[in-house]
Specification:
Layout (H helix, E strand, L loop, with lengths): L1 E2 L3 E3 L4 H8 L4 E4 L11 E2 L2 E4 L8 E4 L2 E5 L4 H6 L7 H9 L3 H4 L4 H7 L7 H6 L3 E6 L4 E3 H6 L7 E9 L4 E7 L9 E10 L2 E10 L6 E2 L1 H7 L6 H9 L13 H25 L1
Parallel strand pairs: 1-4, 2-5, 3-5
Antiparallel strand pairs: 6-7, 7-10, 8-9, 8-10, 11-12, 12-13, 13-14
Helix pairs in contact: 9-10
């Protein structure tokens, strides 16, 4: 719920939006779905970001740039042509059809709602986040999630995805199609000469924020792709999941490990087919 709104602004450029954000208690929005999560937000003014030119997905310089106002529905229909299609899958699994046509990738990263599965594949894809305003930088997704760069005068303008010539697998576990994920996993790897290369493993909805498992990635890199050996290394994953009122920690730990193993099985199958 939002109350006490006295002003509505419709800027037509990023610069104009940033200038308005410097005003006290004037906040930006795109899809607006994060304002319906419960609680009360008190603001004087609202800044619509719909006209500032950030609703795009384009190929540039060997990378894909996704504008911050691109909606999940658009991302879920876009063919990236390589391992980045795990992001397409994650966007397709999030929320309902109607909500996917409202939720923006920038808004999802700004508010990090519990239902959003977007950070997990972005971690596995080594995505970068482009920011404008006070903290005008391009920052890796891990640093973005760990930092506090959105200070009220900084705006997410886009997400940059480098090419991913390997195989990307994204999967989530939920009791029903529309339920929040209990866990989601994104695994990326190349298989070269029967060995794993460029392994990246990200897990979300098990911790307050999605995270990479660098230590396990290092153990798997350059390993001969033997399902038994991969499973043994995955079983060595150690992590304390956050508390869940329905599922035990032991269940969630075993669930994540099983999901990661199955992702590698799919990678092996696809590599064999190619």
């Amino acid at each position: 719920m939002i109350k006490n709104i006295q002003e509505w602004h419709y800027p037509e450029s990023v610069e104009s939006a940033l200038a308005l954000m410097k005003k006290n208690r004037v906040i930006p929005y795109a899809g607006g779905t994060s304002f319906h999560r419960g609680g009360t937000i008190s603001a004087v003014g609202m800044i619509s970001l719909r006209k500032i030119g950030l609703s795009f997905i384009e190929e540039t310089g060997g990378k894909t740039m996704i504008g911050a106002c691109a909606r999940f529905g658009e991302i879920g229909e876009y063919d990236f042509g390589d391992g980045r299609n795990m992001l397409k899958a994650a966007a397709s699994f999030s929320a309902s059809n109607s909500l996917r046509n409202m939720i923006t990738i920038g808004g999802s990263l700004a508010s990090l709602p519990s239902w959003s599965n977007i950070p997990t594949p972005l971690l596995a894809l080594n995505a970068e986040i482009s920011l404008a305003g006070t903290n005008a930088i391009v920052v890796g997704i891990e640093d973005f999630l760990d930092g506090k760069l959105l200070d009220g005068t900084t705006l997410i303008t886009g997400i940059i995805l480098p090419k991913a010539p390997g195989i990307g697998i994204y999967t989530r576990y939920a009791r029903t199609t529309f339920d929040y994920s209990i866990a989601d996993v994104a695994v990326y790897a190349r298989v070269v000469g029967g060995r794993l290369k460029d392994v990246r493993i990200a897990v979300g909805n098990v911790f307050p924020k999605a995270k990479r498992f660098h230590e396990i990635e290092e153990k798997l890199n350059s390993v001969a792709f033997d399902p038994g050996k991969v499973a043994t290394i995955v079983d060595s994953m150690k992590f304390p999941p956050s508390t869940n009122p329905t599922f035990s920690k032991e269940f969630r730990i075993n669930l994540v490990k099983t999901m990661v193993k199955r992702a590698f099985e799919q990678i092996g199958e696809q590599a064999h087919e190619n």
